[in-house]
Amino acid sequence: MPLIDKSSYKTPFWLRSEHWETILPALIRRPPKPPYQRERITTTDGDFLDLDYVQRGHEKIVILSHGLEGHSGKAYITGMANKFLKNQWDVLAWNCRSCSGEMNCTPGLYHHGATEDLEEVVNHAIDMGYKTIVLIGFSLGGSLTLKYFGERGEQAPPQVAGGVTFSVPVQLGPCALKLSEPDNKVYLKRFLRKLKKKIKLKAEQFPDKFTLNGVDVIDNFYEFDGKISAPLYNFESADAFYNYASAGNYIEGIRRPVLLVNALNDPMLPEECYPYELAKNHEFFYLETPARGGHVGFWRPGQKENRAEKRAYEFVTDVIGID
């Protein structure tokens, strides 16, 4: 059980490329920006997180987590926010450390396994009085969401009813190799360019913490995570870091209804990111693998909503059971 056969997502004939399905929505789709109000909260370790809200007095709120080098203004976030706002939900779209337009003030940035920051956001929403919370995450944000539920299991706060995730790299080691394939170099170069820029800014903030020798010639994630991420977050190697941060290693512990939607043509996901066996025997983890959709794409040209927004709301109402 819960393997879901909902592969009715269709694309027009001219969008029959996993790369076009990934890139074009990011370039072309422009949902209206929600009327966010920003709040800055202080984290337990003395850093800050910038949270963007739309509050309309409801007792239920959806918390949206963006992908690698994303932010609350990305189309996939604003589109999802609009979907839930029009259905009488409040919305909180949070920005990972360094992703809100201002560099954070501790040495660490953010990564796929840093669920402590998502926990800070969830606890803040609880402190604000929200009775029902749903978590929705994309790519890295989906990793955080799955790992959050898996780590906490039955101990997750009772207000947190469930979650929905899209395009999640649930096993980071194989994903690092997948991104190094020739067809994926456009994504790899873009991610590394942005992350290297941030690491150089961090080196200016904390010159004793960072060694930049050779950073400019790093050309793959395995090397980047081995030389930068692993030592920064106190891991012995890239493999040790991946083992800790990979959401797939925590799925078994999930005890609230959570949906993972990974398109079969996602150019960034290897076969290890389709955990069919886990879903077959799991009471709470739902897996859906539509044939098409790309990576955080799921575009429906000419439609106000994309497939991800429609599907997330369906799961929240039909399975989690919240109207």
Commentary on this structure:
This protein has two domains: about 5-170 and about 250-320, Rossmann fold (3-Layer(aba) Sandwich), CATH 3.40.50.1820; about 170-245, no CATH class. It is about 35% helix and about 15% strand. It has ten helices and nine strands. It has helices at about 20-30, 75-85, 115-125, 140-150, 170-180, 185-205, 220-230, 240-245, 275-280, 305-320, and strands spanning about 5, 35-40, 50-55, 60-65, 90-95, 130-140, 160-165, 260, 285-290. The model has no long low-confidence stretch (mean pLDDT about 95).
Relevant CATH superfamily of the largest domain: Alpha/Beta hydrolase fold, catalytic domain
User: How many strands in all?
Assistant: 9
Helix content: 25-40%
- How widely separated are the two ends? 24 Å
Query: CATH fold name of the largest domain, please?
Result: Rossmann fold
Query: From the alpha-carbon coordinates, what is the Rg to the nearest angstrom?
Result: 19 Å
Kindly name the structural category.
Answer: alpha/beta
The count of domains is 2
**So how many helices?**
10
The CATH architecture name of the largest domain reads 3-Layer(aba) Sandwich
Proportion of beta-strand residues: 15-25%
Strand order of the largest sheet: 1-9-8-7-6-4-5-3-2
- In N-to-C order, the SSE pattern is EHEEEHEHEHEHHHHEHEH
Largest sheet: 9 strands, mixed
Instruction: Identify low-pLDDT runs.
Output: none
Mean pLDDT, nearest integer? 95
